Amino acid sequence: MKNYINSGDQLTLVAPSGGVTSDQTLQIGSVAVVVHESAVEGAEFVGYTCGVFNVPTAASPTAGATAYMTTATGAITTVATNGIKIGAFVTAKVNGNADVWFTGQVV
């Protein structure tokens, strides 16, 4: 097969205004990612689109609850308002973080 690029679980993207920080969650266009390595504005970085990540959350989720990313801030929550569906919580919140399964769906 000559047209295969990659599995899509990691994408090389260009850092937006202000740059990106490792482990940050954010939306680039219609793609939700977890940043692999920090990068300054305009530089390329790798973002993970799917997998299970331990990320900060303001919500108090239960395992299995739908996870959303707030479009403006990248915050992970259980509230669909002003956000995009990214997957599901795998664990409840502990010490401000929860394990979240990013499914890689495009919104």
Low-confidence stretches: none
Structural class: mainly beta
Give me the count of strands. 9
The helix-strand sequence is EEEEEEEEE
The termini sit apart by: 28 Å
How would you describe the overall organization of this protein?
This protein has one domain. The mean pLDDT is about 90. It is mainly β. Helices cover about 0% and strands about 45% of the residues. The chain has strands at about 10-15, 25-30, 30-35, 45-50, 50-55, 65-70, 75, 85-90, 95-105.
What is the topology?
Blueprint: E1 10-14, E2 25-28, E3 31-35, E4 44-48, E5 50-56, E6 66-70, E7 76-77, E8 83-89, E9 97-103
Antiparallel strand pairs: 1-4, 2-3, 3-4, 5-9, 6-7, 6-8, 8-9
Summarize the structure.
With 107 residues, the chain is mostly beta strands.
How would you describe this structure in keywords?
44% strand, 107 residues, five-stranded antiparallel sheet, four-stranded antiparallel sheet, mainly beta
